[in-house]
Amino acid sequence: MADVLLRVAAPVRDDGGLLSGSFIRIKMMKTALGRPVTLRKHLSLESSLGPRLVVEKHFAQLGHTYRHGRLYRWFEHQITRPTLKLGLQMAGLYSRGARNAITPMVRRVSLEFPNLPAALNGFQILHLSDFHIEGTPGLTESLAPILSSLRPDVCVMTGDYRFEDHGSSEPVWPLMRKVVSAIHAPLGIFGILGNHDSSEIAHGMEEAGVRMLINEAVGIGDSDAPLWLAGVDDPFDYQCHDLARALELVPDGSFTVLLAHAPEIFEEAESEGVNLYLSGHTHAGQIRLPGIGAVRQNARCPRAYTAGHWTHGRMQGYTSAGVGCSGLPVRFGCPPEIVLLELRRSPELP
Predict the structure, then answer these.
(1) I want to staple 195 with a disulfide (CB 3.0 to 4.6 A). Which of 34, 146, 237, 326 is the partner?
(2) Which tens digit of pLDDT belongs to each residue from 132-144?
């Protein structure tokens, strides 16, 4: 089984000694699901989640999140969702939207980079986002056989495993375990948290076999020219992302892929030398109208950055439409997508 090169983002103790900024070759282990995960010999997950736990306590005291106040939440549950559902039912469209929501497609995207190490030419990343897994009946059963048929080098998940942004996470675990067990990625599965996720979801995902990146980075693949995966906490609502910390010990000039739940920190990421920015959150609108596109953008960034492939300066990005739904388990003009990205080295000019 392949090793993973981990460069710690802060000094940590190992057998009483202090390690600082050096590579640690960590043997992979198998979880009960047979999924390889890295042994945590760096910062504890609880320590990494510290800022988020503070925000969660604040949200509990407020009774709402930063961006979704009490009035918004009441209006969403009492007016918006029931009215939209009734309207779709009266138009005879609700059942069609529900079928659309459990008919995911595989979107294959080839991206070229002039600075991609030769060892990473042809490297494949499976990008999954916005599961909201317990909110769409039948989604897990639709996803599993498709995921099982794919053979990426690594899988990344960019948050929102839970349907609501509050309440119990218990219904999430059995469904996400089925999803994770269907994925075959020799270099592992890595994930971040979204704005619908509580800190306990990070622990549950790690138990399922997903290595959670909370404002930190890990190098994978060829030890001479690794691909660096950096993950930040949710920049949309929790706002406890720390890109500088996540990239602190990534070597200069390394090929770096950033996982961020929303595309909103694109300017900072490009200025820090990130090569590829992977995000979700927007669902690409979830309901897209002909000639108009997404009715709702739901991100503070240029509209072009809220769906699919985009570029900003020297950085490329991909914002996934996600595999799940929020609000109502329906989709129109915007199928759930399983994204398979292939990295290619740009041909050298003569």
Answers:
(1) 237
(2) 999 999 999 999 9
